[in-house]
């Protein structure tokens, strides 16, 4: 290879851009290659069908430990009550409680939480000592303080804590899965997937979140876990053993969540890893019980246990949210933690923190491409005698080919991930969304750098820059059963319920008559149960397609109508809500992934 005798400024700029692209691209390529090699090896070693798939019965074989769900609430009066009421309908777990942390100056949110507390006995309100907004970590610490207080009052200790946001739709079996894994595998943290609710093709901003989470939660985190690097918490769908809070509290004080970080979830999971605790990521498909109207067994597609939520749909709100992520991960965590941990952990810290300069390189990519394109058009149409922007050197051709190859790999990985999660249509749409997402990330980098430098120079803490929330309560179409309402309200025990169910088939009684005949309840209790069932929000058929916010009001028209499918009485009473397989979305019918034990 012959090198030029003289190097121009343009060539120097081009070389720097190429260097940045190659370093970032090789890092991504290493993760891609590592994932696919291990993936294929596991597929060959553990063929599909050779081992039984995890079922709901497997989860039920483990005693339900006491769980707490933490929710940090600031200015969420529009969604928090619906979130609590609707998810209490969805969750198929009896031994759990909500801890909702709010601020003393957020009266609207407090009123909504109080309204939920009047309906749900398992909701606890934790009022922060500070006026809001401080930051999410401070609010989560208030929730933990309330949990400790409740433990002292009741004398009963919680076994694990699950973190969620006010806009999340929980999978009914999420708590059962976390309980099963923590019991059988003895892990300290379980992270389940988080997938944005699917949006129409025209919404590129919200769609970019779909692509990001699809790639992260179908490939990247797998590679991290298999490489024995730390598994980052997504802040939602994260279950953490109660003992881990005690040990970290003894090490870091009462602030178990780092109030000096805007990404307390990422910081917490990293501290867990550095302290030697075991964390896993579980993308688990589960065979659920499903019966026809006749009561005969029916085929049920495997459901993916994951959290669904709406994400920002406008450029401005997306930039605000992602700025918080970048400041917390790329600046605050770097400043506070440095480069601690094993070699694999250092690699993943580099992978996470490189966004500051890799996004800057993307900006120069676009600028250089635009300038080069304009220069080429000028030469082609106006002044052919003008010298080309770059001389015809072999190294330049090789550099362009390498960069193009790395870019095509990124496009391919994104298409595969989105297709596996949302289907081929969204997979193809991920190609143009990749470039739009780069534009968002460029704006995020500029804002994050400015925000962090301003905070450091002025000595002020960055406030909680909250984005608006949307909870898809308008898409809830299924009513819960009477037995479910009575059990959740604490007016009926499972033993009495089982006795009534056993008596029903032989006598053809209604549930009300069976309960009265067995003297399990009085008429007033049943009447109150029916009233509560009618007043409660209708339950989301979990696997039904979830649409974007503007489609939700159309679905409100079907609220209260009888669904076209009929679960068995047992399923209704025990909260195991099943749907007709035809109603399952593409999202729930994708290719089953590995069982967690493979």
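^ structure tokens above, recovered residues below v
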């Amino acid at each position: 290879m012959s090198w030029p005798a003289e190097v121009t400024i343009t060539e120097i700029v081009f070389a720097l851009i190429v260097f940045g692209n190659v370093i970032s691209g090789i890092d991504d390529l290493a993760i891609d290659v590592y994932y696919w090699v291990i993936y294929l090896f596991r597929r060959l070693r553990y063929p599909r069908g050779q081992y039984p798939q995890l079922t709901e019965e497997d989860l039920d074989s483990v005693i339900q430990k006491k769980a707490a769900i933490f929710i940090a609430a600031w200015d969420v009066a529009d969604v928090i009550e619906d979130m609590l009421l609707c998810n209490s309908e969805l969750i198929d777990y009896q031994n759990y409680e909500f801890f909702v942390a709010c601020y003393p100056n957020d009266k609207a949110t407090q009123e909504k939480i109080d309204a939920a507390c009047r309906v749900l006995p398992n909701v606890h309100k934790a009022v922060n000592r500070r006026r809001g907004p401080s930051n999410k970590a401070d609010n989560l610490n208030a929730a933990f303080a309330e949990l400790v207080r409740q433990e002292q009052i009741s004398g009963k200790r919680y076994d694990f804590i699950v973190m969620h946001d006010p806009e999340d739709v929980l999978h009914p079996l999420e708590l059962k899965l976390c309980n099963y894994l923590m019991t059988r595998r003895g892990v300290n943290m379980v992270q389940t997937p988080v997938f944005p609710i699917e949006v129409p093709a025209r919404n590129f901003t919200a769609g970019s979140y779909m692509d990001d989470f699809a790639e992260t939660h179908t490939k990247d985190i797998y590679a991290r876990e298999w490489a024995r690097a730390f598994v980052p918490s997504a802040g939602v769908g994260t279950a953490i053993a109660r003992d881990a809070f005690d040990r970290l509290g003894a090490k870091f004080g009462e602030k178990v969540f780092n109030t000096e970080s805007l990404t307390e979830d990422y910081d917490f999971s990293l501290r867990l890893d550095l302290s030697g605790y075991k964390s896993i990521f579980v993308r688990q498909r589960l065979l659920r019980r499903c019966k026809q109207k006749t009561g005969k067994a029916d085929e049920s597609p495997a459901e993916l246990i994951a959290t669904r939520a709406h994400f920002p749909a406008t450029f401005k709100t997306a930039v605000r949210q992602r700025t918080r992520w970048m400041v917390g991960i790329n600046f605050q965590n770097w400043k506070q933690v440095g480069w601690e941990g094993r070699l694999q952990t250092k690699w993943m810290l580099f992978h996470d923190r490189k966004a500051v300069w890799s996004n800057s390189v993307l900006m120069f990519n676009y600028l250089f491409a635009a300038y080069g394109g304009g220069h080429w058009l000028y030469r082609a149409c106006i002044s052919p005698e003008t010298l080309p922007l770059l001389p015809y050197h072999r190294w330049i051709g090789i550099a362009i080919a390498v960069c193009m190859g790395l870019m095509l790999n990124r496009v391919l990985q994104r298409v595969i991930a989105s297709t596996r999660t949302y289907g081929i249509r969204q997979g193809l749409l991920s190609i143009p969304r990749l470039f739009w997402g780069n534009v968002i990330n460029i704006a995020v980098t500029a804002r994050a750098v400015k925000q962090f430098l301003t905070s450091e120079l002025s000595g002020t803490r960055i406030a909680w820059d909250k984005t608006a929330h949307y909870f898809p309560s308008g898409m809830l179409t299924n009513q819960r059963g009477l037995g479910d309402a009575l059990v959740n309200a604490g007016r009926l025990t499972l033993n009495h319920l089982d006795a009534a169910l056993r008596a029903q088939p032989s006598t053809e009684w209604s549930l009300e008559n069976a309960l009265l005949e067995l003297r399990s309840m009085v008429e007033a209790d049943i009447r109150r149960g029916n009233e509560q069932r009618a007043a409660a929000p209708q339950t989301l058929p979990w696997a039904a397609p979830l649409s974007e916010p503007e489609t939700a009001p159309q679905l409100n028209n079907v609220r209260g109508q009888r669904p076209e499918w009929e679960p068995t009485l047992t399923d209704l009473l025990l909260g195991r809500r099943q749907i007709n397989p035809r109603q399952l979305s593409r999202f729930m019918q994708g290719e089953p992934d590995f069982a967690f034990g493979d």
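The radius of gyration is 27 Å.
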